Amino acid sequence: MPLPDTLPLVGITWADALFMLLGGVAVAGSLGVVLGRDIIRNGLLLILTLGALAGIYVMLGAALLAGAQVLVYIGAISVLILFAIMLTQSKAAPAKLNFQTQAIPAALISALLALIFAVTLGGGGWSATVYGGTPPPEGTRGAADALFGPYLLAFEIASVLLLAAVIGGIYLASLPRAGQIGAEQEEERP
Amino acid sequence: MSLIAGYLEPYLVLAGLLFSIGSFGFLARRNAISMLMSVEIMLNAVNIAVVAFGAFVPALAGEGIAFALLIIAVAAAEATVGLAIIIAIYRNRKTPLVDEYDTMRQ
What we know:
The complex is a heterodimer of chains A (about 190) and B (about 110).
Chain A: H1 14-35, H2 39-59, H3 63-88, H4 103-123, H5 140-147, H6 152-173, H7 181-188
Helix pairs in contact in A: 1-2, 2-3
Chain B: H1 8-28, H2 32-56, H3 63-93
């Protein structure tokens, strides 16, 4: 039996319901990341948020990007963040205050930023340059044409940047040997 | 006919919301790793906006996804170096809280 066009009882289409579900999960998860006290839960909620955003990419017809999001963000960066949390966590940290003293000005600045976004979105004629309607589910071919055509140099520079970041990360996080700055401070510490 | 998901504006609203939330977290949290997580949220918000423009503006058809892939690569590099720096500072100062990093305050 075929699915009905709209969600039963509420009458909104499946795409709208999916967008609201994924967007709501993303916003609620990021609020949890920013406001939550327990930093391990913050890291796990970040994974949830990134997964919801991968679903939004699929809705926009960018399945390749959703795969990259799952592989890079959920698979690599989140695991890296969780490991860094475990390495830097002390017993006293969750009991302490988790916001700075300037939290209220920070909230005001963020609200101002959101207001600027709202004014920009409300004032512009966005629909003039945009076609209304569900985007076609292709885009990988066009992305490959762009990435390996006019942006080939940027692609290669990104790979060199990743190599440099890996080497720099290993160098920065490795134990300081004798003669380096960190090693001397470590000797002075009782 | 879908009323929300078929238009550009809801995706931009979502991106703006996520960017504002991430900027608040970056400015207000004390823990350096929480600040890095907020930066990741902001980068993802920008990615949503870029991909939405790429999907809805016909002239930008493939370039939105290409730019978003490059942003993901740069974000991975940034997370690697940032977390390595945080671990190196933690090894010296024994705290991940940024307002206790006051060596250069004099």
